[in-house]
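Problem 12. The chain below contains 377 residues. Write out its predicted structure in token notation.
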Amino acid sequence: MNATLEFTRELIRRPSVTPQDAGCQDLMAARLRQAGFTIETLQYGEVTNLWARRGSGGPLLCLAGHTDVVPPGDSSQWQSDPFSPEIRDGFLYGRGAADMKASLAAMTDAACDFVTARPGHAGSIAFLITSDEEGRARDGTLRVMAELASRGVKIDWCLIGEPSCNEALGDTVRIGRRGSLSGMLTVNGIEGHVAYPQLARNPIPLFAPVITELYSTPLDDGNEFFPPSSFQVVKLEAGEGAPNVIPGKLHARFNFRYSTVWTYQQLQAHVEALLRRHGLDFELNWHLSGEPFLTPVGQLTDCITAAVRTVTGLTPQLSTGGGTSDGRFIAPYGTQVVEFGPVNASIHKVNERVAVADIDRLKGVYRNVLERLLPAG
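Solution.
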């Protein structure tokens, strides 16, 4: 069993359910310290963050990721204990195998091997690792980036080990993500008896044309890298607990996944104008999970594409698909961000897995990126 595979198994054995790190970052830090990295732990509440750096000059390449995992759910549905990694039929099974402990092990070993072989490499290498990506995402990368900015630290390039591939390792590199904007809406009506609707004001039919318009009218056509922006209602409720009472309020929660065609301010204004146009009495609160970002085609995208092609033989699609990632907290500081990691078909599911052969190939891609971006000085 090779070292990076065993390292992945060690990380999976630690039940780092968000926001707990469960000692994963200590394992990474021990290896990085031996390779000459300066180690710093940034603790915010329950959240543990690792900032490790080797070198003081630029450019600065940051390898980023998270040690926290989602809960395993019903363990009886797993074919093996989710925190007792097991190899079956060429796959390593366990919670976090693909999202994203294989990437963390591969990144760490790739960086350690690289600096051992090339101690005089150009620029600097850093690791930004959090235990707050799968949860609230308030005390992790978001706060670390603010702290680094206050110190004047500028990250030029960032490679995040999120599981980016769809069917085979190497088929997809993410070069951006859509923004995520949620609205919490209350439509006010007038409660009344169902037999006397003229004396009441039912918020349900008042809201119906609004929701119809939001679903039926495309927000945009997307662009070269982003699919069309989307709108989804995720919660809708009204009622006073009795079948003969017209409700006085309707509550809805909805979400936009939007491209760089929009800003979140424009989306908010669009919805609020629509509600006013339909004459609704409403209260609306917003939550911005992250703005969209896009790394333009250039040195970093060319580098990761070439590295993936060299190691896997595949030319990856440059994509902005999927949900949000911590890239949304890094890109606003002027950092070019790409994401590359394992096949994502089993993430957040029972029997999460990663192909054993892909772990070494991941390590090879990360090592190749280091060699291309930070050659010997």
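Discussion. The mean pLDDT is 96. Students who got a different answer should revisit the alignment rule from Section 12.3.
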